[in-house]
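ZP: hey, is the NAP complex queued? I don't see it on the tracker
AM: it wasn't, my bad. submitting now with these inputs:
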Amino acid sequence: MAKQQQQSQETTPSDHKVIFITGGSSGVGRSAVKLFVSKGHTVVFTGRSSARLEDAIKWIQPSKEERSRLYPLILDQESLESVRNAVTVFKSFNFPSLDILINNAGCSNPTLRYTADSTRVESTIFANTVAPWYLSMLLIPLMHSGSRILFIATGHHDPERKDFMMRMLNNDAILDPDMFNKLDGKENYTAMAYYKISKLAMIWISYVLAKQYPDISVLSACPGFVPETDLGREMPWLMQVIMKNVMHYVIPDAVTAHQSASEYVYYTTSDKLEGVTATFFSHGEIRKSSKRSYNMEEANKFWNLCCEICNTPEHIINL
Ligand SMILES: NC(=O)c1ccc[n+]([C@@H]2O[C@H](COP(=O)([O-])OP(=O)(O)OC[C@H]3O[C@@H](n4cnc5c(N)ncnc54)[C@H](OP(=O)(O)O)[C@@H]3O)[C@@H](O)[C@H]2O)c1
């Protein structure tokens, strides 16, 4: 906790940033919006509905001055059109540049389905990885040397992780050498398996992005186990109650949304991390991501798949 407090004090009031954070309407994202705005930053934050965004503002309880630095924005990551619209609205705010992008929004869809844009990947991979890739590519031209992009993944992308949750989870899909031909989920979809694949792919694109844009710091992180959030909203009712009220007793290193949000502040604003890129973090520390996440052949292949789905041939990498 002392470390968390030290991390969250590392920005100075004179160092105010323009921050774009997705999934700011609930959970860790919402706590991060509250922290960033309390530190004097300007925060554009997204959610899928204006009602959820308004509720988040009520929860944040900003002062009048803080409210003037909060920009709620609609973004549905199951639609490329919605991504484009969000970027258009962001541009209309006329900020001189974008300092920090946090790709935080995430979901785990309970049943197999597809977005209107693609059947090549199922909807969880689309929302958690393809859409953040597209959003990043549209926003990078507004960034500057030293800007940072943070991708919120999960430690559970790593099948070698041996914690309580991992022991309960099946890792066949994420270890499958033929995974690339199964991203549509038709053969073996389960919510958790494809959630993990989406987060592995997210770390892949963070590593490729870091290589493609050496002037920008591209980081990825696991937010820790944060049982109080709405991430399990699609689970059966009883599971949700257990998740929010029991799991933090069972899993000793569970953290609060505020603690996890303090780490977002550290990763994106600390001077100590200036120039650090292509790096994965967990609990505020640099960690190794899974073995497969360093397979750049697969990473580049996934990147090119994003280019194809988003119809951006100019970003294709020659393999
Ligand atoms: N909680 C944990 O233990 C844990 C562990 C590892 C990783 N994570 C990751 O941490 C991040 C934050 O999750 P959280 O726990 O704070 O969950 P949360 O409370 O459910 O918040 C998720 C946020 O993402 C938005 N979102 C969900 N699906 C979306 C979609 N298809 N398009 C656009 N926005 C969407 C939600 O917006 P709406 O309000 O519109 O629904 C909400 O703002 C996620 O990437 C998650 O995978 C969480």
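AM: back. The radius of gyration is 18 Å.
ZP: great, adding it to the tracker
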